[in-house]
Every structure is written in structure tokens, then in C-alpha cells.
Amino acid sequence: MTKEKKWSSNSSKHKCCGSRKSKFVGFLVFALIVGGIFFIASCGDCKHDENKNNSDSLLTNLKTEYQMKNDQLEQNKEICLGVSKAIMNGEWEKVDELLADDFTYIGDGAEPINKQQYIGFMKNVLCGAMTDMDMNFMRVIAEGDLVSVDYTNAMTHTGDFFGIPATNKRVIGTGQFIREVKDGKVTAEWQTTNAIGLMGQLK
Fold first, then answer.
1. What are the φ and ψ backbone dihedral angles of 159, each rounded to 5 degrees?
2. Cα separation, 32 vs 93, whole angstroms
3. What are phi and psi of 185, to 5 degrees?
4. How far apart are CA 104 and CA 201, in angstroms?
5. Residue 128 in 3-state DSSP?
6. Which residues of the chain are under the pLDDT cut of 50?
7. Could you tell me which residues are beta bridge partners of residue 182?
8. What sign for the dihedral angle of Cα 75, 78, 81, 83?
């Protein structure tokens, strides 16, 4: 009887300890699971933040690059149009400053001319025969190093122009030109003018 009671008592203690051990193991497993989930979630947030930062950095770089390109194109337009404005105002030193030393002009199927020949033509032929110029730039498009311009130029014929004496008529010249701009200078120009239309107005 005593042995049975002792065995029963030991059995109860064993069950109690086993129950406590099971609860502890269960709690430990639960804690590990919760901790693992928290760790994974935290890592996910870190990666999300890292990806977001990378995306923001890339977007900022793209915006900066676009702005720099746009600023350069606008600067090229100003330099390109600056040549025409200086010619209209008779600012020959400025024209010389805006044109590169190796500047080349090709227009209306004629042979190419250099910088000094170009300035000489504009100064002595065009501006020697036409005064009170009012040049309008209808369309100005820039891409890379090139600036394309569609223009009209209202002028008064006050001097000899290719053998035609002054008529004092108000005439309008039209045409298109493309100027190449590099390092702040115009290096080349390709131009097409409506020469037949202009001569028809003079005659």
C-alpha cells in the first residue's frame, strides 16, 4: 500500500513536470515564431525603404540630367538667334565673337564660304542694300548641337542688291537655316532662302 502511494505520488510529480516542460517548449516555439515573423517583416521594411531610396535617387538624377540638357538646348538657341540679331543691329564685333574661327556657311547651292566671307556678305551686301530689318523667328527647334530656324525678315530696299537699284520698297524675305553650336560658338550654317520670291518683290 505504501509502495503504491509512493509510485502514485511520483507519477503525479512526473506528469506535472512533463506538463510544465511541454508548456515551456510551446512558449519557446511560439516566441521563436513571433520573433522570426518580426525579423522578416523588419527586413522587408528595410528592403522596401532601400528600394524606395534607390528609386527616388534615380528619379532625381533623371530630372537633373533632363534639366541640364534642356538648359543647354535653350543656351544653344540663344547663341544661334544672337547671330541674326547682331546682324540686324549691325553689331559686327558681336557677330565675330559668336562665330567660331573655323565657321563654314553653305547656302542655296553655292560654294561654302568661311567666317570672314560670311561677315563681309552680311555687312556689305545684305545690310548695304536692306535696312530697317524686322526679323521674326517663326519656329525654333533645337536637338543636340543643332538649332533649326524658320524665319521671315521684313526689310526696306534702300541700296543696290545684286544689280537692282534701290526701290525703297518694303519687302519680306523668308527662309530656313540650321546652325551648329559647339562650346558656345556657331561652327556651321546651312541655309535655304526664297530668293526668287524676294527678287520678284524687288522687280
1. -150, 170
2. 82
3. -130, 150
4. 29
5. helix
6. 5-7
7. 185
8. negative
> Is the domain 1-203 a CATH 3.40.50.300 member?
no
Whole-structure pTM value: 0.69
Element (H, E) at 168: none
- Give the list of residues 6+ apart from residue 166 with CB closer than 8 angstroms, or none: 129, 157, 158, 159, 160
Q: Using CA atoms, how far apart are residues 165 and 184, in angstroms rounded to an integer?
A: 39
Q: What residue ranges in the chain does DSSP mark as E strands?
A: 99-107, 113-114, 130-143, 146-157, 170-182, 185-193
Residue (of 87, 90, 81) closest to 177 by Cα position: 81
Percent of the chain surpassing pLDDT 90: 63
According to the model, what pLDDT value does residue 203 have?
Answer: 83
Q: Could you state, in order of their start, the residue ranges of all structural domains in the chain?
A: 1-203
113-114 and 185-193 as β-strands: parallel, antiparallel, unpaired? unpaired
Closest CA to 172 of 197, 149, 148: 197
Q: Rg (Cα) of the chain, in Å, rounded?
A: 42
Compute the 3-state secondary structure of the chain and give helix, strand, coil in percent, each to the nearest 5. 60, 30, 10
Q: What is the pLDDT of residue 142?
A: 96
